[in-house]
Amino acid sequence: MSDPTFKQRARYWFDNTMSKGTKALIGWLTVITLALTAIGAAFLLIAGQGNGFGGTLWTSFIHILDAGTITGDGENGPYMVIMFITTIGGLVILSSLVGVLTTGLDAKLEDLRKGRSLVVEKDHTVILGWSDQVFIVISELVEANESEKRAVIAILADRDKVEMEDEVRAKLPDLKSTHVVCRTGDPADPDDIAIVNPGQAKSVILLTSAEDDPDAQLVRSLLAVTQGGQGDLKCHVVGAVAESRNLPAARLAGGRGAHVVDANDLMARLMVQTCRQSGLSVVYTDLLDFGGDEIYMVEEPNLFGRPLSQALHSYRTSSLIGVLTKEGRCIVNPPSNAALQPGDKLILIASDDSAIRLDGSRPVIDESAIVARAEAKNRPERTLILGWNAKTRMVLEQLDQYVAPGSVTDVVSDHPDAAEAIRKIGPTMRVQGLNFKQDDTTDRLLLESLNPGSYDHIIALCSDDVAPQLADSRTLVTLLHLRDMSQRSNTRFKVVSEMADDRNRTLAQVTQADDFIVSDKLISLLLTQTAENPHLSHVFGNLFSPEGSEIYLKPADHYVRPGVPVNFYTVAESARRRGETAIGYRVAAEAQRAPSYGVHLNPDKSVQMLLQSGDKIIVLAED
């Protein structure tokens, strides 16, 4: 091939220059303007119409920049012709300049719309991914950051920046002191993640994506954040897997700096605990959100060397639930005779960290009101599960760890995967018997044939083989049938239901079910709390586990005499003598009143109250 010609080289050089964008175009227009000015001035001088070299250049330049200047020219023929041609050239140059500037400005605005600029913030919260969970997480972070003058949340998702900002403004109009910054990019690309500056963030929250395999996206994002060249991350990284089998891989990808939870497993545990004691999801929601009581960890040197029984009654407006040892071990419901060691931190429930204050007054305990009633022995239970989804297998496995021998669980669903799953699960059940019926749970005749009044517990699950709104609609139909059957037979059904969308919880209140669980909301709250304080993952891990101490709602008349005015110091002391930790109570008469549903968590211990038969004490206990 022959060497390129001069023309080809010049064209290649010109193309490379023009590819540099708006700046190069403006540069070329400047060169053309100067050249045209010089040419116009030269022709004037040749025609003998010039006014000195400098004056002639100025005259030519003015005619290029302002086309109206030609109206003031005289009637000299050669002068007018030269200036007319120069003015026409100036109009072309100015028109081109306007076009170039407009195009460059549009390109710059489009670039800004893409959200690709670096987030220059420190101690901000990074959210990777986009789903309905993002609004719950943001609203909770807004509450948590209310005391800060300026808090920042940076969101990176594979969506349009402006659309994300519009959705946040529409659903969360009052962000208080929190500023939300959105950026467009792949949450699993290290280069894109660098845009939100995770190296200087205080926490990173990974949301579950809407992909067919969300856990694969989560693992990629964990690797991109922790191993993708983001520097030495000092922030907390939290996320949740959708399937238990992917948990080991996710934890390996995240390393020691990440806290990954098993969403379905946690919700299955909560579902089982709640079906056996209604009101529990309200307690957990109160603990997990930032709007009411929260869990704090404080070091109290004044109590070092003293038994925890003294710490139990040392806080009037806070409730002791455990100890975080200096070795990092979390102990929930510790023995009351154990001594608090230097370096240990108390785990407390309080409305705010400013409410955690040692009370120097002596607690008033009414010994005459304390009773010691033994717990009833576990008896075989009958449980009815209406519906099927990915969590049902874990619900059955968890239920098998709680119920007494001889218990029976019946599952009714028309889900296409249910029959085969039940066939595999059945032989693994150690304690309970398992029966399955393939049928439509919205069928009134079917529900009546099941005789729901004969069951100790009923769990209504939303199906995952249809859209969330349709699944909730079918669950609502089932709950309405159960309520009507309960009223007609004058029989109380203990029903716990799962909702796919938290907005449908309000609609479901008319069904008068004992409790409602919204999985996505609770997981979002758990991730947000863990992002703010990673030690809380150990606390909630202990509370959700069947081993060790958990939260129970037990009859109030097992602790104090019903109908007798008592303060919560007395209730807490009665629970302490049973090896338990009291953190609140539930009034049965208020069980259907939103938003607390009768739950009073972390009450003022000095305030008198009147507990009746049917009311519950919320305690941490081993069984």
From TrEMBL:
Transmembrane segments in this chain: where? 25-47, 79-105
Which residue intervals define the domain CASTOR/POLLUX/SYM8 ion channel conserved in the entry? 265-359
Principal location class: membrane
Q: What Gene3D superfamilies has UniProt attached to this entry?
A: NAD(P)-binding Rossmann-like Domain (3.40.50.720)
Where in the cell is the protein located?
A: Endomembrane system
Coiled-coil annotated residue ranges, if any: none
Q: What membrane topology is given?
A: Multi-pass membrane protein
Q: Which residues are the signal sequence here?
A: none
Q: Which UniProt keywords apply?
A: Ion channel, Ion transport, Lipoprotein, Membrane, Transmembrane, Transmembrane helix, Transport
InterPro entries the UniProt entry points to: CASTOR/POLLUX/SYM8-like, CASTOR/POLLUX/SYM8_dom, NAD(P)-bd_dom_sf, RCK_C_sf
- Name the PANTHER family on file: ION CHANNEL POLLUX-RELATED (PTHR31563:SF10)
Official protein name in the record: Lipoprotein
Q: Which organism is it from?
A: Glycomyces endophyticus
